[in-house]
Write a structure and sequence with these properties.
disordered C terminus; 33% strand; alpha+beta; 118 residues; single chain; two-stranded antiparallel ribbon; 21% helix; 7 strands; five-stranded antiparallel β-sheet
Length: 118
């Protein structure tokens, strides 16, 4: 779960095997900006969180983190205290679809098998 603090979205609760591979210490991940936990090429996690909050709709996208291709789905919600939060899930899609890389930029090109779904 992510909560907005200033211009950043901060991890307040995180769980799952995939994220445990990023850090063994879950306490280390919580209270950190999501853009630090899951750094990305191109649009950052923070940008995607801002977009889903603005649209008040779910967002599904692909990103590369620690040489893994992740499929991430996020959506805005409200917690038990009435505060706006972002809920999400991440799946490791490494090897499912080939990741094409533009050698000039060393950034993943748009995968024709993928699009943002809103």
């Amino acid at each position: 779960m992510l909560k907005k603090q200033g211009s950043q979205f901060i991890c307040t609760a995180i769980d799952g095997e995939l994220l445990q591979r990023i850090s063994d210490d879950q306490e280390e991940i919580t209270k950190r900006p999501i853009s630090e936990v899951l750094p990305a090429f191109g649009a950052s996690m923070n940008d995607n969180c801002q977009l889903t909050k603005k649209l008040q709709d779910g967002l599904t996208f692909e990103m590369v983190c620690q040489e893994k291709v992740l499929l991430i789905s996020i959506k805005p919600s409200v917690d038990e205290f009435g505060q706006d939060v972002i809920l999400g899930t991440a799946m490791d899609m490494t090897g499912v679809f080939p990741l094409r890389v533009n050698q000039k930029q060393n950034l993943p090109e748009e995968n024709i098998n993928f699009k943002i779904v809103m």
